[in-house]
Amino acid sequence: MKGPFRLLRAAFPHLKRAGNGRVVNVASLSGKRVLGLNAGYQMAKHAVVALNHAVRRAGWEHGIRSTALCPGFVNTDMVAGQEGIDMAQVTQPADLAALCGVVVDLPNSASVAELLVNWRLEPSL
User: Fold this and answer.
1) Taking 90 as the threshold, does the pLDDT of residue 80 lie above it?
2) Which of the four pLDDT bands, split at 50, 70 and 90, describes residue 56?
3) Alpha-carbon distance 73 to 81, whole Å?
4) What is the CATH number of the domain that holds 54?
5) Where does residue 67 rank: exposed (0-12), middle (13-18), buried (19+ CB within 10 A)?
6) How many CB atoms lie within 10 A of CB 20?
7) Phi/psi-derived region of residue 36, left when phi > 0, alpha when psi is between -120 and 50, beta in every other case
């Protein structure tokens, strides 16, 4: 959590001067709901979502727009080897990159606070 916080603290004056600064905080669906018993990971991702909303509030009048990107499993080394999951079916990194591009290109009048992305249906979302 300290990394994103420190980076945003350093970047904030520059984003303000730009008048249309964009921030995409990579969180996780674990920042929106709790499954499993990985409390440390879940706490950190909830903190990233909270940081995202703090940036939105602090930067709104300066044209800063911030989005929390909250994916489920993504086809990366982090989830490789998960039993019973076809990695070709999970969200691909290129899909998240494309979504980030859309969010960053939006005008100030169309801000996306959170973007939940998943490869499977979850009843709790």
Assistant:
1) no
2) very high
3) 12
4) 3.40.50.720
5) buried
6) 13
7) left
- Residues ≥6 apart with Cβ < 8 Å to 109: none
DSSP string, 23-45: EEEE--GGGTS--TT-HHHHHHH
Residue at 125 is within a domain: no
Q: Look up residue 54 and give its two tokens.
A: 């703090």
* Structure letter (DSSP) for residue 117: E
Kindly state the helix (H) or strand (E) to which residue 123 belongs, with its residue range.
none
Rg (CA), the chain: 15
For residue 20, what are the domain limits? 2-117
The pLDDT score that the predictor gives to residue 29 is 95
Residue 122 counted as domain residue:
no
What is the total count of domains within the chain? 1
Q: Is there a catalytic annotation at residue 103?
A: no
112 in any annotated domain: yes
Residue 36 has pLDDT above 90, yes or no: no
Tracing tokens 């998943």 back to the chain, one arrives at 118
Which listed residue (9, 20, 41, 54) is catalytic?
A: 41
User: Side chain identity at 7, as an amino acid letter?
Assistant: L
